[in-house]
Amino acid sequence: MKKIIILGTGCSRCNDLMENTEKAVKNLNLDCEVEKVSDLQQIMKYGVMMVPALVIDDEVKLVGKVPSVEELKDILFNE
Fold first, then answer.
1. Tell me, what CATH number does 46's domain have?
2. Buried-most residue among 1, 38, 41, 48 (CB within 10 A)?
């Protein structure tokens, strides 16, 4: 099972990434866990200097962007 983590402090862009990711996961009918991490100490462990960020299976895939649901589907489908 894939593990997807959204790194963000709770700003609107972070919330948008979470929402778009959940929609993409649902549209693809993926069996995965989607989690949001807003603790700065946890975010820093990934070496991320800008949020929001998308992490899939402990690998940072996107930083500082809010891709569309369709773009996220492409990213998730190719994982």
1. 3.40.30.10
2. 48
